[in-house]
Amino acid sequence: MDSQQLFKERFNAHIKHVMRYAQYILNGHIAIALIFLVVAIAVVYQQFLIELPEAFPVSLVMSILLSLVILYNPIQTFTKQADLVFLLPALESLKGFFYRGLVYSFFFQSYLMILILAALSPLYHARFTSGNYLFIIFLFLIFKLWHFIMSWASLRLRNQTLLLYTRMGLFIFQTFVWYSYLKSWTIMFILGVIGLFIILSYLLHLAFAQSLALDQLITNDQHRLERFYRLASLFTDVRELSTRVKKRRLLSRMLTSRVLLKQSETYTYLYRLTFSRSEDYLGLSSRLVVIGVIALTTINQPLLSFGVGILFIYLIGLQLLPLFSHHDTKLWLLLYPVNRQEKTHAFLQLLTALLSSVVLLFAITLIFRLTALDGLLFLVLAGVFSYGFVRVYAKSKMNNRRRYS
């Protein structure tokens, strides 16, 4: 079997498949929002560096961030479920196929490595005036390569408890090595590097004594693809996405207890239950709310705070839009004796309530962070924006779905 040709076919198919959804993710609205967010973060970061407190633990923060990026090593092998049957007998002849996948996976992470190294450079030079940042980059690449090889080898191990404790131990040890270097503890740094090398060598020996676990490679690739599908589902329908559901009895009961048991409330009950149980909506929106609150607490400029707050409200509303058509592929919904207007009304009602809650939370945050007047002004501006988003933008999106469904 020609491993090079197989990799080329799988790679081209993967890129074509990803680009089909990427064009929806990077449309005009999202591109503008991302540019605004990057500018806002850059302004806040620059202001933070100017006012950098003497007590701020630069060494510890840099050590943790560098260690997190070093230990984050997603590996794409382009394997499929059918390979368990058709490729399993030919694993020995597919070393070139997996090698090319590893090279792709390592260089695919270069954007994250460049981003973190570029972001930490001003912080490093703001505190350390005599250090050599190029040597940190060199050490970073060496450590990254070590841990990347370890991540590939760990896919052979099936003991998940061992892997969990291994990752925790490696993170603590790697953070200590970075902290020792930044604090100029030369002896501790050298001992830490030697110890880290011994631990990684032992783990590599333990892992490579096992045979290649093709089923784990396939599961790993499927999980990565599912995460990409969840991102793409915020902007378009993704037929390949398999939704994870959690019962969340308490939250579900809170959202549905006051829904009346009558025909016109059918979709009200369904949408509230779906929102509370589906990780795609509750999980993502909750994370965006938390990030938005953290961002607003770090900004002390009213206009910038207003822009960032409205941007997060837009992103939260955008990721909730697919909820409207979440159940459209289920044929049994056609049995519901409910007209389309009631479905639309139920969704818009839920979307309005959720965005209003976010607006109120952000306004309270700004009242405590800035002034009461700034918080009230944001409440008015964000309320008008949310109303327009629901009644104009969201409604037009739903009308377009109805036209093409």
Automatic annotation (TrEMBL):
GO terms for cellular component: membrane. The keyword Transmembrane helix applies. InterPro entries: EcsB_ABC. The chain crosses the membrane at residues 21-43, 55-75, 96-121, 133-155, 162-181, 187-208, 281-299, 305-325, 346-370, 376-394. Keywords: Membrane, Transmembrane, Transmembrane helix. It holds the Pfam family EcsB. This is ABC transporter permease. The lineage of its organism: Bacteria, Bacillati, Bacillota, Bacilli, Bacillales.
